Amino acid sequence: MKFKKIGSLLVATFLVLSFSACSKTNPSPVSSKSSAPITLKLCFQGSASAASQQQTVQICNEFTKNNPNITIKVLYIPVSSGWSEYFTKIQTMIAGGNAPDVSQIAIEGIQMFTSMGLALPMDSYMKAHPDVVGDALTDINPNLEKPFIIGGKTYGLVADWNNVVMHFNTKLLSDAGLSVPAETWTMQDYLNYCKALTKTVNGKKQFGTSIPNSYFQTEGILYANGASILNDDMTKCTLNSPQAVQIFQMYQDLVLKYKYAPYPDPKVDSIQQLAIGQTAMGAWGRWPVAEYVQDNFKDVAIQLLPNFQSAGSNQKVVFGSGAICALKSTSHPDEAIKFAIWTASQYFEKNYYGTGSIPTRKSVADEVIPQAGVPQNSDLFYKTASYATAVQAPSQYANIQTIFDKYMSEILSSPVDVKTELDKATDEINNVLANQ
Amino acid sequence: MNELVTKKKKLFSGKKENLTAYLFLSPALVTFFVFIGGPIFATIFFLDFSKYNIISPIKIVGIQNFARMFADPEMAVAFINTLKFVVILVPLHVFIALILALLVTRKISTPFKYFYRTSIYFPTIVTVSAVTVVWTYLFNYDFGVLNYLLNVLNLNSVPWLKSGSWALVSVAIFSVWKNVGNSFIFYVIGLQNIPDTYIEAAQIDGASPLRIFFNIKLPLLSPTVFFVLTINLIACVQIFDEPFLITNGGPGDSTQTIAWQIYTQAFRNFNMGYASAIATFLFIIIAVITMIQFSLQNKWVNYDYE
Description:
The complex is a heterodimer. By secondary structure, chain A is of the alpha+beta class. Chain A folds into 2 domains: 39-161 and 320-382, 3-Layer(aba) Sandwich (D-Maltodextrin-Binding Protein, domain 2), CATH 3.40.190; 165-316 and 396-435, D-Maltodextrin-Binding Protein, domain 2. Helix content of chain A is 45%, strand content 14%. Chain A has helices at residues 2-19, 50-66, 83-95, 107-115, 123-128, 130-133, 136-139, 142-145, 170-175, 187-197, 215-224, 242-257, 270-275, 288-295, 333-342, 346-352, 362-371, 380-383, 397-413, 418-435, and strands at 38-45, 70-77, 102-106, 149-150, 153-154, 158-163, 165-169, 199-201, 204-206, 281-284, 300-303, 318-326, 358-359, 389-390. In chain A, the strands form 4 sheets. In chain A, strands 1, 2, 3, 6, 12, 13 and 14 form a 7-stranded mixed beta sheet that branches. In chain A, helix 19 (397-413) runs antiparallel to helix 20 (418-435). The longest helix of chain A is centred in the N-terminal third of the chain and has 18 residues, at 2-19. Chain A is globular and about 65 Å long. Chain B has 2 domains: 2-45, no CATH class; 71-300, MetI-like fold, CATH 1.10.3720. In chain B, 76% of the residues lie in helices and 1% in strands. Chain B is built from 12 helices and 2 strands, in the order H-E-E-H-H-H-H-H-H-H-H-H-H-H. In chain B, helix 2 (64-71) crosses helix 12 and helix 5 (128-139) packs across helix 10. Chain A binds chain B through residues 5, 8-9, 12, 15-16, 18-21, 81, 84-85, 88, 91-92, 94-95, 116-118, 205, 207, 262-263, 265-268, 278, 398-399, 402, 405-407, 409-410, 412-414, and chain B through 16, 20, 23-24, 26-27, 30-31, 34, 53-56, 133, 136-137, 140-143, 159, 161-164, 246, 248-253, 264, 267-270.
């Protein structure tokens, strides 16, 4: 009876302790001169197959070969609604004491990470270790690096980027008697293509174009018409400018009036729609190439977006870049920065960005982009690196994107007055910009 | 003396049993307080009066969050949308589940009975995030199966997820398909608990099936109906999964609910304090509705036969 009581007490105590929250405290930063084994936790955005994850681990093992005391633990964070959700998860991990040491951060998040003091500047380390930096700063186009230099400090060496170009299903073009348009094609050319490519084939509807419903791609279209979501210093919203209204009105007409484009359902893979012939054109960066290669879809070409402005005017092209950044929460800042710099190396870019985003190193881009085999005119991807304009993503990006998505879906789903909706969106976004 | 010792022994062994019981309950109690009770307490009595983004230190702002909530036009839209979902979904869940339960508990062969029960309950156990992918394709305006079938019947395509009002209907259709199984099972159990003698006696007296239902089955089923009504009201006021996964609150803000706003404020905008204030207000709404229900149950719920 006595043993039974003691046994009960022990079992219960064990169960209580096993359910208790055991918080992991961050150990204090270790000197960079220590050669004790270190594990750096690296986070990437998106789902990756087991094979892809294993490939990433093998790529990172190359770093470990030259730095035997540093092991990289790779963690993929799948998200369903883009970068905002990813950054939310990273911040939650940081707040929960489970912070990664290094994290993939896109241009959409770098302002937020730096304003919240989460990212580690790399300048001191880079100055002290030019051998680690190598030729990164000369091989990477400085225009692409600009978004990651904030307040004079460098928070990441950009390793990948994307612009927005028009992708064409060349088989559907040829069936319609069309070819890939010239670089100087205009809004009227675009509308003519939409009309010619919209038809019903064997009872199945084929649409001329898909409408982008993401912030990044839409900014690309707005830039092509001399408009933008925010003003140049990102302090005011300009969604209700006449040029922006013109673009959104065009999109509303394409979906509702002319029916040249399907309603852009965010749950539907619009890249797949191009590949299977449901749409003939669509605006994306280089990231669809991974899907094209996987599906063996070769009937695809790209061209710059139409110049929606008057003939002869300079067309702005959008870009977004990304880097692996060291986070302030890391216990191994030097090692984290060293690894972050390494991810902008030739080896990493060549192996990690074979298909998908555009490598930022010209030498790697020149080698890797043609190797993918698709799309035609793939040289256009890197061509815009020097003059492309960064997508506007202030620290309040998550809030602004939510508002943008709301009004975008409202405009494209019903024949509402576009100007009125964009005025409302502008007011709400200005409120966010003013109050945070 | 012996009596005193016996009494003490009984008292002591009673306390021993209680102690053992509490020790074995303690893991569950600790889990509850750490993961449920504690956060609820912190939300209601602390977080909703603060400004907190999980990274920077907490700042107490008094009732600012509540004032903001009542002045926020987006919250007004969320309340109206939630009310629409409640008005549409609660009757559907309550009545469709009842009708299905009545059909299944008729005198039909056992294999069919099991087949229908399984088919109706099966959607309840399937992961909602998986089936919403399928339903999103079914509802697709241009390429979805539902509109294809409508076109085959020479009917116009329906803008299931394209139009604000149809999006509400689409979410409601999915919600009924997904969740009616829960209420259905409760009704089946309730109907099975009704003694056959009452039904047989009524049949002998010549009562029609409709009469039997309204005068015997329904009154005896009233506790189950009350339970189903209560849990469905609570669930529908908190509806989140379906509008989030199918429409993400759109198109526009037509399917944004109170729970959607809580999620957006907390996990997209990092306004933990504001989200906590909304959550506290939602809790108060649900508590008031439930208290009203319980106070009215005496008028129509019949526990007499138990």
